[in-house]
């Protein structure tokens, strides 16, 4: 199975556990930066990778199925949007909230 696939509930459900003591990452073909980590015990956790201020950042979003694919995709888009704005503009959190309400 390829490491890059279109995330759906069915496809995430079908991912088998990684080798014992190891982790396997799969990347969403539709949402850049979104990945799901599968552990040896079969736990599936969504992560987003983004660059902030020239440094890579990995953020844990939540575990599947408590967090749906659609929720993970939406949160990834929000976080990547904020990482694009923040390093280049000196705006307050209140202004971020206003921008997000308009964007989403």
From TrEMBL:
Quote the Pfam families the UniProt record gives: Arm-DNA-bind_3
Q: Residues in domain Integrase DNA-binding?
A: 7-80
Protein name per UniProt:
Uncharacterized protein DUF4102
From which source organism is this entry?
Thiocapsa rosea
């Amino acid at each position: 199975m390829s490491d890059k696939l279109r995330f759906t509930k069915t496809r995430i459900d079908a991912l088998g556990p990684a080798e014992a003591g190891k982790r396997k990452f799969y990347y969403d073909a539709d949402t850049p930066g979104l990945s799901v980590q599968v552990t040896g015990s079969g736990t599936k956790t969504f992560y987003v990778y983004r660059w902030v201020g020239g440094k890579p950042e990995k953020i844990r979003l939540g575990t599947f199925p408590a967090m749906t694919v659609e929720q993970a995709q939406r949160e990834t888009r929000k976080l990547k949007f904020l990482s694009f704005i923040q390093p280049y503009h000196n705006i307050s959190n209140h202004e971020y909230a206003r921008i997000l309400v308009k964007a989403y």
